[in-house]
Structures are given as structure tokens and as C-alpha cells.
Amino acid sequence: MNTAFEKSVPGRTGCLPKRPVETADKILPESLLRSEPPRLPELSELDVVRHFTELSGRNFGVDSNFYPLGSCTMKYNPKFTEDVAAMEGFAKLHPILGQLPGTREWVQGALRVMHETEGLLCEITGMAAYTLHPMAGAHGELCGALLIAAYHKKQGNRKTKVICPDSAHGTNPASAALAGYKVVNVESQDGVITPDALAEVLDDEVAALMMTCPNTLGLFEPHLEEIVRLLREKDALLYYDGANLNAILGKLRVGDVGFDVVHLNLHKTFGTPHGGGGPGAGPVGVSERLVDLLPISRVVKEDDGYHLRYDYPDSIGYIAPLYGNFGVVLKAYAYMLRLGREGLERVAEHAVLNANYLRKRLEGVLEIPYDRICMHEFVASAATQAKNGVHALDIAKALLDKGHHAPTVYFPLIVKECMMVEPTETESLETMDAFADDLIEILARAENDPDSVTSAPVSMSVQRLDETKAARDMVLTEDLAEKE
Amino acid sequence: MPYIPHTPDQVRRMLDVVGVDSMSALFADIPASMRPKSFDLPEGLSEDAVLTRLSEIAAMNETGKASFLGAGFYDHFQPRAVRALISRSEFYTAYTPYQAEASQGTLQAIFEFQTAVCRLFDMDCANASVYDGGTAIFEACMMAVRKTRRTKIVMDEALSPIYRRMLSTMTLSLDIETVIVPHASGASDKAAISAAIDKDTAAVVVQNPNFFGVVDDFSDVAATAREHKALTIMSAYPVLASVLKSPGSMGADIVVGEGQSLGLPLSFGGPYLGIMTCTKEMVRQLPGRIAGRTEDKEGRTGYVLTLQAREQHIRRAKATSNICSNQALCALMAHIQMCLLGPEGLRRQAVLSMELARYAQARLTAVRGVDLLNDAPYGNEFAITLPRPADEVVAALAEQGVAAGFPLGRYYEGLDNALLVATTDKNTPEQVDRLAAGLKDAL
């Protein structure tokens, strides 16, 4: 379909603010002004509404499709939290009001939300304190890695390395590298970290181990206690990648077992929509010995109300301009209030039940490299099918034709022809059965009529797209396209 | 059970299929010694009860007051159609478009957003956004360091101090030297900035309008940077970019900005939108998601995420950045805003905001003891000096229900008596009159 730029009609306007009485050149010298207005689309309001309504029809979303995208926790997000975020008392609040004498009183509600959210997250994970500032999970990882660096610096430790397992999210090594660390890999044995493998790479230079548990294979790490002990011996810290927290709510608190830093993906675990790739929120929790290092500001409750405090001399400083993605935090807060203790524990139970059920339904038809009780997700492999020329990607595309979003494919990198399935707790038995039946039918065709699978998808607005051409031609804006 | 569909009978059947006798057996891998020491959370509430409680908490906030706070975050008019369109669940309940064929809506919208911000700033390429304007400056500096293999960043002190503080935190452990060039009474000292650029400089970072609201032409700074093979990074204010000389035409290599002003709610600090654009030469250094146009096998136009080989999920520790998700829904919001307003609507927002600032300047400097901090050209924000500490004046004005502005002494030594005042198209002359009257009383 045409872009908004192609639909543009010179001179047409959509929604104008009241007319200004002056033009810009009466206000500023001409040398500071642009000669031509920017060539943005010129459309009516209805043009715009139709354009984006049509675009929305070319998208899968959780509200319309099963979306078992592993490691992304695409669960149903309740609608009422949107109403909360849109409340005028929150949406219209200028952030700096919280920092000024006299206007701080105008933001007591917002500060209360942040303070209570921090308290809830501390109780859920067993950490001593949280910062809500990181604006996404990966941003939380960077914040965590900086906290680790600051801790060792304060202790006078010389530490240069961070260990990331081969089953880690790709952001873990990237974040550690960005914080100035050399990244050391530890290979999983039978899908998990063993004390022996860890001991081989663990030396005095190691600042931390970044762990995901359950890991990206959907497995709980069985040697956790021993791993904690080994790291403590070297005064190395333990970082917990909380992207998979959905699986352990009420079942394990990372603070209780010895983790020092944890980031949470509020948009995954605590029910806020993923927005086509954001915004998210990635609060970071720390154990007692790192509390003074947290970014500023911090919200404190005093007799006369809530305050933003900045006087923490050991703080790493500003990781965000303000207080993080408050709108997302707000939705997570409302979600936690709605579910409460029992509801949150039930999230973990049903997420894990659903993943195991779907694993069982597929174990006869797809290779399941680690076929044992999994947590909220599991990994399957299309290696057998690939021998016939039908790859994980083809199966993914064929699923789209059946109205299901595909699982995550080719991740984690350590499993060949990997398909990572995460049904989440909000999916019904009927939906999972329909998905399994459709997948089984596709796998049968992969054997009998492989072309019908490799030619998928056929029911979307476009057929299989040429990614090589996109990278080679690099048409990244409408302008460049016109020049060709 | 909220949001969980299974009946007790279905749970039993599923446990049978899995081959375990109870829900707790699913968690047998977690040893008893590691179970939570406590999980002392409140009981769940009904939807109604949560909404009631949150309405009460929202009412503890005061949003109906006249506000002249800017400092990088501006409340501009947003047509209601924006919220209606981004509330379409096909947009907001989707995720990163990993399956392009089922995500053409998101991908085309990103492609169009990239085009729109490139046209606004006169640049070649853009990504699908990063977290905020400050993150964008940090990522831009990292691009420059990689591209030039140099480690010195020259930075205007009139660049947002909030962003400068973010940058120093994020580069704590990196081998990067930052040289801050002092401002001249709120104006950017371009001669001193140019003089600080040398053969070791990776990039020079400036902002237009700068933190004091001053509008400038940084062409000379960019030319000096080019002579030294250093890059020019500029942070720009998108709404004003519709009328100001464009960063691209001044010769900037990387242009970033906080996209909040493009119709995003203030929402007490986020989510906002980091805009990142660059020249063609820099595109392989550009972090984050980028949508590219391509074809399907029938020759139909379609869109995919492209240049992914430089990203963290493939390159891990060697990636251009650790950024994984972006602010896609915020980018969509900004793009819809730009489509609805068009070039004329944006221009009117900019001019209205700047006009009202002139009115405010006239009214405020008419108060005895109040002067402009400098007489440099400005956009919709300007700094005044007061005969008393700005903090005290702000507190006094707050009692009259007016947020008077941003006390510059918070971040700038020696400017305790200076106040930064911003206006947008949502402020009114009547509000300005109240501010002026209040200021007169307070002094």
C-alpha cells in the first residue's frame, strides 16, 4: 500500500492549531530559519485515520492472534491499565514539577506510585531496593553492569571480565561490553551451567556472572546454589536477567538465593503491551551492599510526604533524564494491585503448565533437545525437517498462514533450527490445541509436500520478503527511494 | 482467576498430559532451600477497586495549573485522533516485527517515521527510535567514537545538563574524554567550541535551541569539525525544526532529538522518544532497529528490519549497541502527529509557541528587577535574571498556582537567580499575565 508521503496532496491539511498572527521571519532573523518547510505528508484527518487503520490491519497482535514468541512473554494485557495511564492526573504531569520547591506537592500521587511500585518489586524479588529509571530491559542491563563496576571500584577490586553463558540473551554480553568489560563465554552442558564449566573460566578478574534463570532454553538452572558459592569465593557479583521472571513469581526470589543485581522487564512479566517493540521499562533491583550506588533520583517517604532525593554521593548518577518510563510503571503497578499475591503466583503456575502441555503435544513431531520439565517456555528444533529442505523459518511462515504468530526462531544460537515457544499463562487449552494441530499438519506437509511449506506465507498482505535485497539496496526512507 | 482461562477440569487434564500429579510438581527443580523467604503482597483487587484507587492517587497530582516549565520537555497540542489510532490493538499488542509478513503495519509505519524525521532534520537515514533524547546523544557519541577511532568528545555546556549527566554515567567505565566548553551567559560560545576541536576529537556535540532556549547557526562549528575529521552531533527540538534552519543544512553528521514534543503526553517523564538520524556514510554505525524497503517474490513492495547483522542478538559483545527494543509505539504516535499536523500545522505550533514567548518576555522584563539573561535570539524558551534566588520565586509562584519555570541554578553555578521560562501553543496570554502579576508580587 502507498505510504503517507505518496498519498500527500500539496495544500491539504489535517488538524491545525489556531492560526498564528506572525510568521517566523518576523520573530527570528532569516539566517536562522529554514528556506523550505519540511516535506511532511499533507493529508486530511480522515486520510490519516484510514491510512493507519489500513496499516493496523497488516499486523498481528496478541488481541487478534496467538503469539507464542519465546522469551518475549506476549501475554494478554488487561485493558483497564490503559485507562489508568491515560488518567489526566498522570498523563498531563510535567516531570520537573517533582523537583521544585512548592510544586513537589503537586506530584504526590505520582511519587506514591513510584514508591509503592518499588516496594512491591522488592517483595516479589527479595531485593533491598530498586531504581525504576531504566527505560527497557537492555537499559536495565547496562545500568546493572555500571552498578557492578561501581561496586568493585568502591571495594578497590581490579575486575575486568564478565561471564555470560552461551544461553544468555544477546543483550547481556552487549551490555557488559558497553560497561567496559571483556566478555567471557561459558558453555552450557546439557542446557545448563555446570560448576565445572564455570570454574574453568572463573578467576579473580571476574566482576560478575550474568545469568538468566530459567535460561533461554526454558530450563531452571539446577546448580544455582553451587554457582552462587563459587562466585562469592571470588568476590564476583551475580546478575539476574529478569526477562523470564514470569516463570518464577512466588516460587523463587532471586534476592533470597544471593543475586546482587536484577533487572525486570515490566512489559513482559507485569502485563503492559509491547507496542510493536516498545516502550518497555526495565527497573533494576539490588542487594543491600549496592543500594548506595543506585542512580539518582530516588523517591523517599518522609513525614511531610514523598520526596525526590539526589544527595547520594556514591550514586552512579543519571541513567535516565527523569524517573524512567513512568507510564509503563503505572500500568505494571495497576496490574500488580489487580492480581495480588495469589494472582501473581498463579501466573507462574499457569505459564509453566501451558509450556509443558504444549511441549508434550509437540514432542512426537518436532525434536525437543531438552525434553524434560521446562519452565514458561521450551525449545524445539526443526533439524530433522531441515534435512528435507524445510527450515525453521519455513515452518514459522506457514504458521502465519494458519493465523498464529510464529515462535522465536534461530534463538538461542546454541540449538540448530531452533524454535522457542512461549505460550504464556493467558492462553486457553483450545488455542494451544489449535496451534499444535496446525503445526502437526504443517510438519506432515513438510514431509509430503515441502513446497507448500517453503512457499509460505500466502495469506498475508505480502509473500516472503527478500531480506537480502533490503540489506543490499538499503532503501531506508522514501526520499532515497525517489532518487533511485 | 483474572486473565487465566483454564477450568479446574482442564488443569487436571493438562497435568495428566504433562505426566505430573500436581502444579507444584512442575517446580520440583527449585529446591526447598531456595523457596521464597516471604511473598507478602496484598490480596488482589477487582478491576473497579484498582481503578478507584488509582483515580484517587491521580487526584493527588495537580495538573490544572499554569506551567512554564520546559527544559527539554514540552506540552504541545495533540489531536485526539492520535490516541484513537495508537489504541488500535493490532499496533499496541504486537512486538518487534520479527516476522515481517505479519508485521507490515508496524514496519511500514517505522519506515514512514524514518522518512518523516529525516525530512524534518534534512538527514539521510534514521532508526526506529531509541529510549529518549539523552540515550540518543550517548549512542551518537558511541557512533562517532567507533567511526573516527578517537575518544575525545567536545561538548557545549549549553547542551542539556540532564543529558550531559546521563552521558557521564553511561560512559563511566569507558575510555572517553569529555571536554565541556563553558556557555557565555546562556549563549553557546561557538568560537570556544570550534577552538576546542582538534585532531583527537571524535565529535562535537551541540544543541539547537540550546538549553537556555537560544537559537543559533552551528554551520561554522560543523565546518571546523569537518576540517579536523571530527563529526558534528546536534540535538534538535522537533517542533521548532519545522521553522529553524535545519541541522542537515548546517552540516551535522548525526542529528538526534527528544521526540516527546511531537504529541507525546508528558506522563511524568516517560515513555518518551529518542530520535536518531545520520548521513548515509554513518548508517552502518547507527544502532537499533531500522526498517528497509524491499520486495516479495511477486514484486510487491514490503518492509523488513534490515542491517541486523550489527545488532546484539547476532553480534553479542561486538554489537553496535546493546539496544534491543525501541519506543515503537511512541514513534508511531509522533509519526501520526506529524501526518495530522503536516508541515503547516507544525509550523503553526512552532510560531505560536515562539510568539507567546515574546509576549511573556515583554511582560516579565517589565517587572522591576527582571532582565533577560542575554539578548541572543531564542525560540520558545528564554532565561531571565531575578533579584532573588529563582528557587524562592518558584516556590512563591507555586502558592499562586503557577509553575514559573526552571531555576537554572540547579545545574549552572552562578545562575541561582536565573529562571528559564518556556511557552507552547497550549499556554495562553492570560496565563502569562498571571505569571507576570505573580512575579511582581513575589519580588
UniProtKB/TrEMBL annotation, chain A:
Residues 101-295 form the Glycine cleavage system P-protein N-terminal domain. It holds the Pfam family GDC-P. SUPFAM superfamilies: PLP-dependent transferases. GO terms for molecular function: glycine binding; glycine dehydrogenase (decarboxylating) activity; pyridoxal phosphate binding. Its EC number is 1.4.4.2. GO terms for cellular component: cytosol; glycine cleavage complex. Residues 348-446 form the Glycine dehydrogenase C-terminal domain. Its cofactor is pyridoxal 5'-phosphate. Keywords: Oxidoreductase, Pyridoxal phosphate. It is an enzyme of class 1 (oxidoreductase). One of its GO terms (biological process) is glycine decarboxylation via glycine cleavage system. InterPro entries: GDC-P_C (IPR049316), GDC-P_N (IPR049315), GDC_P (IPR020581), PyrdxlP-dep_Trfase (IPR015424), PyrdxlP-dep_Trfase_major (IPR015421), PyrdxlP-dep_Trfase_small (IPR015422). It catalyses: N(6)-[(R)-lipoyl]-L-lysyl-[glycine-cleavage complex H protein] + glycine + H(+) = N(6)-[(R)-S(8)-aminomethyldihydrolipoyl]-L-lysyl-[glycine-cleavage complex H protein] + CO2. The glycine cleavage system catalyzes the degradation of glycine. The P protein binds the alpha-amino group of glycine through its pyridoxal phosphate cofactor; CO(2) is released and the remaining methylamine moiety is then transferred to the lipoamide cofactor of the H protein. This is glycine dehydrogenase (aminomethyl-transferring).
TrEMBL record, chain B:
Residues 3-436 form the Glycine cleavage system P-protein N-terminal domain. InterPro entries: GcvPA (IPR023010), GDC-P_N (IPR049315), GDC_P (IPR020581), PyrdxlP-dep_Trfase (IPR015424), PyrdxlP-dep_Trfase_major (IPR015421), PyrdxlP-dep_Trfase_small (IPR015422). It is an enzyme of class 1 (oxidoreductase). Coiled coil: none annotated. SUPFAM superfamilies: PLP-dependent transferases. Pfam families: GDC-P. Keywords: Oxidoreductase. The keyword Amino-acid biosynthesis does not apply. One of its GO terms (molecular function) is glycine dehydrogenase (decarboxylating) activity. It comes from the Bacteria. It catalyses: N(6)-[(R)-lipoyl]-L-lysyl-[glycine-cleavage complex H protein] + glycine + H(+) = N(6)-[(R)-S(8)-aminomethyldihydrolipoyl]-L-lysyl-[glycine-cleavage complex H protein] + CO2. The keyword Oxidoreductase applies. GO terms for biological process: glycine decarboxylation via glycine cleavage system; nucleoside metabolic process. Its EC number is 1.4.4.2. The glycine cleavage system is composed of four proteins: P, T, L and H. In this organism, the P 'protein' is a heterodimer of two subunits. The glycine cleavage system catalyzes the degradation of glycine. The P protein binds the alpha-amino group of glycine through its pyridoxal phosphate cofactor; CO(2) is released and the remaining methylamine moiety is then transferred to the lipoamide cofactor of the H protein. Belongs to the GcvP family. N-terminal subunit subfamily. This is Probable glycine dehydrogenase (decarboxylating) subunit 1. The gene is gcvPA.
